[in-house]
Write a structure and sequence with these properties.
This protein is of the alpha/beta class. It has 2 domains: 170 residues, Glutathione S-transferase Yfyf (Class Pi), Chain A, domain 2; 108 residues, Rossmann fold (3-Layer(aba) Sandwich), CATH 3.40.50. The protein contains 16 helices and 8 strands. The strands form 2 sheets. A 4-stranded parallel beta sheet has the order 2-1-3-4. A 4-stranded parallel beta sheet has the order 6-5-7-8, with helices on both faces. Strand 3, helix 9 and strand 4 form a beta-alpha-beta unit. Helix 14 packs across helix 15. The longest helix has 16 residues. It starts with a helix and ends with a helix. The model has no long low-confidence stretch (mean pLDDT 96).
Length: 291
Amino acid sequence: MDCERRCPSKVKIVDIVELCRSDLVKNGHILSKHKAIADNVMKFGNPFGEKEKVVDTLGKKPKKAKIGYFSGCTAAYRNKATSKAALSILDKLKADYTVVDETCCGSVLQRIGWNNDDVVEMMKKNVNSIAGLGVETLVLSCAGCYRMFKEEYPKYVKVPFKVLHMTEFLATQDLKLKARKGTATYHDPCHLGRHAHVYEEPRKVIKMIPELTFKEMEFNKSTSHCCGGGGGVRSAFPEHSKTIAQTRIDEASFADTIITTCPFCVNNLSMGADGKNVKIVDLTELVDELL
């Protein structure tokens, strides 16, 4: 996405790359690790091949409510602390919310060039499940899932509810947070930042934390560097992914805490930290800890 930001001719480079990937996949050319992930999504509804449904991992049952919570596969199956924190925050705020009977949002499949008809079917399934609960606002933990619902879903299906990333939701709340000393910086996830242009809300929430010193990295907001974990890179080329993450960690050497808002970024930056004395944390988890 940074290529598009830099391109003086405003060429839609991301669309071109993904169309090329789609053409390759249609002609039988797909990396084995990407094929395995796609097969898992199609069979189990998640890229990890987990048989348990998302709602079961969250420990709650869907019900009629104005706010729906969509955890996304990674927060449901791997970064469970993030989905747990999101539910805890909604409980503390006494929100009228429900979990939803979600399946993969389709982002993984679109990024690797999978058949778009399969992705659209997932979109329809998710939207019907959410709308059937009377949800007026959908709140999401994952930046990738958020981008799908915000930007990709409306291209193919009607989305009859408002879509908010968890940080956008939190930015509207009167949060009474406990103090936390130290120096923190914020890493903008590609899907939330350059794709969806959500920059100020996470920073607004961070600034609600008393006594915390906040400092930007040199490359931030629209110029932020990628963590290296997206676009199928980490699954197929983990060493390259780790090297990219290490450059971001080095850029934040002045901070004891790197805050971000995407489970992929949390995981990849943590891999890049490689024993360095820095904490990588999702903003949702930090807010729950201090609320």
